[in-house]
Amino acid sequence: MEYFAFTGKTMGGSSAINYMVYIRGSRRDYDSWAELGNHGWSYREVLPYFMKSENNQDIESHNKHYHGIGGPMNVERFPYIDINTMMLVEAFKEKGLPITDLNAENQLGTDIVQSTSKDGRRESVNVAYIRPIRHKRPNIDVVSEAHVTKVLIDPTTKTAYGVTYVKNGKIYTARARKEVIVSAGAINSPKLLMLSGVGPRHHLESLNIPVIADLDVGSNLQDHVTTDALVIGLSNKTSTMVNGPQLVSELYNYFRQEPKKNGPLAVSGTLSGTAFIKSPYTYEDAPDLQFHFDGRNVKEFYSDPTTYLASNVFPLSFYDGLATRPLLLSPKSRGTILLNHTDPVYGPPLIYSGFFTERIDVDVLIAGMKFVLGLEETEAFKESGASFIKIPVEACSSYVWGTDEYFYCLLTHYTSTIYHPVGTCKMGPHSDKSAVIDPRLRVYGVRNLRVVDASIMPLIVRDDAENQKVKASK
Ligand SMILES: Cc1cc2nc3c(=O)[nH]c(=O)nc-3n(C[C@H](O)[C@H](O)[C@H](O)COP(=O)(O)OP(=O)(O)OC[C@H]3O[C@@H](n4cnc5c(N)ncnc54)[C@H](O)[C@@H]3O)c2cc1C
């Protein structure tokens, strides 16, 4: 299955291009990591670090059990609330979901999300952490537009001592006095380790890469898989579509506002409205489904059923339809990342997503789709004139819209993700033979080498170990 690796190749990485939704995961996620033998990672132990990192500007800051003020990363609700975000949250409330602080004790419920932004502007990790100290602290030297090609590891002592990188066509070496810390993300950290001789023996040998440590690097890939093909059409009452001159005027307004931004360009459209529920397939007191709504331009959908899948060509806040995405929070399927045989160093790695290799994953998402269809019956939807577009999409036109078979077809033919890959340099105790790093993020079998990014997650956040054992496809 094709998988587009969408990652931020810039300062701040993917936090510079993401949707800015600030959701940490549930208590169960971190407790599950600890139960797998990762000491120090239980919810009780990680919560102080979340609180320390946060400068929460919202009502949540009053909850001193879960939120912090004064940390480097600003958290707020966007200053502008999109009309359809309100409709969605109201509709979920009518369906019985409570308004919940999605970063507190219990994620089950709905709300307008908190975001990693400040005054309606993105707050990437570069803005929050690097910019305030860059050029100020003597112990940080940022080399931008540099591509690291290898971690240097002494094959005799198995000790990492630096990296090689390419900048402007020239090769350089940076040497480490203490440790090398890799933080290239869940797609590129495994690639870099494998290029450096840390990875599955048979794969490295097939590429003539000398093996330093035979580890399960690249396996255990997980993501929040979904589909983009379940679409709500909006009436003129709540469509926010603009024409060219209106868009120019909005842009002008946005750039004119200082210091606080406001208006539709200071929000990520309906991505601000979300909900977490439990499907009938989970026994835990934590959600296994989340809903995302992404603005779409679907005006022509009646004449051509394929066009309502068209991506939004306008900024996120200007749309006349909503891609309704049930997100699989606890995938059981696993994928793999391998080096590209043609050009392992500069070519993109091979990504085998493994999506839906476990049937239960499809079943949970179908349950999510059935739940979300119920929003149509709410007063909030009826008052707005919002309803699902019930014209079958092209690849699924042989099925009856709204049936399990139709939804199965949507999921397998119009599969998408919201780009949360994790797990490819799995953290685990020594007894876990599939672990790449220990609970202090040190690579097994190599001295002075750590991995510190989303690749270390043993289970994607909102997942749990016990659930993995007991669930069975119904
Ligand atoms: C479109 C999109 C929307 C998302 N929305 C959200 C959201 O709303 N909320 C949320 O919490 N998460 C969201 N995510 C996911 C979130 O952004 C990522 O999980 C997170 O940024 C991962 O952090 P990371 O440090 O592991 O990797 P990254 O952020 O990917 O950082 C890796 C860094 O390493 C650099 N790098 C890689 N290889 C090399 C190399 N060889 N040499 C030098 N540098 C290298 C990259 O350029 C990048 O700067 C989204 C992601 C995307 C792409």
Automatic annotation (TrEMBL):
InterPro entries: GMC_OxRdtase (IPR012132), GMC_OxRdtase_N (IPR000172), GMC_OxRtase_C (IPR007867)
Top-level taxon of the source organism: Eukaryota
PROSITE patterns according to UniProt: GMC_OXRED_2
Transmembrane segments: none
Record-annotated Glucose-methanol-choline oxidoreductase N-terminal domain positions: 185-199
A family per Pfam: GMC_oxred_C
GO molecular function: flavin adenine dinucleotide binding; oxidoreductase activity, acting on CH-OH group of donors
PANTHER family xref list: FI04917P, GLUCOSE-METHANOL-CHOLINE GMC OXIDOREDUCTASE
Descriptive protein name: Glucose-methanol-choline oxidoreductase N-terminal domain-containing protein
Species per Swiss-Prot/TrEMBL record: Manduca sexta
Lineage: Eukaryota, Metazoa, Ecdysozoa, Arthropoda, Hexapoda
